[in-house]
């Protein structure tokens, strides 16, 4: 079911009841570009989404609202068919960082790939999914931030995985679409690929 951003005012608390689950058509439909400059309702929706991630990672708040922990959330996961997503996670230095992306586009990426050995998870998927999800080790993304300013940033490692997971959502792609159907633990051939947690050989 498609919703209007107007529902997600800044003071609105997103809970798991607002999260669209797999099988819904909005998760399989490419999201629409967001008009720039951002309208107030889109900015507030992004603020709501970011607060959900922060709440989900706060043990006390997560228990209160029965939230699953998340590091990324796309607009279509709350029923908004708009090209925007948020991230709240640690950077390479271990600091918590938050990113809000509007109309994001990967403009370049590494040849080398990585994957999470425990597979990926998704707030819209309530069942365990096993298998390797190959991702580019680094990506450069161009888009707009919450204030409507154009931004270009490069992400590596875990952050790059999250960015690609969320942009996939905006293109109607689920993470498990990238798992090899015949052998879930088979990795792409002819490309350098390693587990995220393996040290690069020097």
TrEMBL record:
Q: Which domain of life is it from?
A: Bacteria
Family from the record: Belongs to the polypeptide deformylase family.
Q: Which organism is it from?
A: Paenibacillus riograndensis
Q: Which residues bind Fe cation?
A: 122, 165, 169
Q: Which GO terms describe its biological process?
A: translation
**Needed co-factor(s):** Fe(2+)
Please give one Gene Ontology molecular function term for this protein. Answer: metal ion binding
Reaction(s) catalysed by this chain, per the record, are:
N-terminal N-formyl-L-methionyl-[peptide] + H2O = N-terminal L-methionyl-[peptide] + formate
Name of the featured protein: Peptide deformylase
Cofactor note text: Binds 1 Fe(2+) ion.
What lineage, starting at the top, does this entry show?
A: Bacteria, Bacillati, Bacillota, Bacilli, Bacillales
Please explain the role this protein plays, according to its UniProt record.
Removes the formyl group from the N-terminal Met of newly synthesized proteins. Requires at least a dipeptide for an efficient rate of reaction. N-terminal L-methionine is a prerequisite for activity but the enzyme has broad specificity at other positions.
Gene3D superfamilies listed in its UniProt record:
Peptide deformylase
Q: Where is the active site?
A: 166
């Amino acid at each position: 079911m498609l919703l209007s951003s107007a529902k997600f005012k800044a003071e609105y608390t997103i809970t798991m009841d607002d999260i669209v689950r797999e099988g819904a058509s909005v998760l399989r439909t490419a999201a629409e570009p967001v008009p720039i400059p951002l309208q107030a309702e889109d900015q507030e929706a992004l603020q709501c989404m970011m607060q959900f991630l922060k709440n989900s990672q706060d043990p006390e708040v997560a228990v209160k609202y029965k939230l699953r922990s998340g590091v990324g959330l796309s607009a279509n996961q709350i029923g908004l068919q708009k090209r925007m997503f948020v991230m709240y996670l640690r950077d390479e230095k271990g600091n918590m960082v938050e990113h809000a992306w509007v109309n994001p586009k990967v403009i370049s990426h590494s040849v080398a790939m990585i994957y999470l050995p425990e597979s990926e998870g998704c707030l819209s998927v309530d069942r365990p999914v096993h298998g390797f999800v190959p991702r580019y080790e680094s990506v450069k993304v161009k888009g707009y931030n919450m204030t409507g300013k154009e931004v270009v940033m490069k992400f590596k490692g875990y952050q790059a995985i999250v960015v690609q997971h969320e942009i996939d959502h905006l293109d109607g792609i689920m993470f498990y679409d990238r798992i090899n159907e015949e052998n879930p633990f088979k990795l792409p051939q002819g490309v350098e690929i390693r587990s995220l947690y393996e040290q690069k050989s020097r």
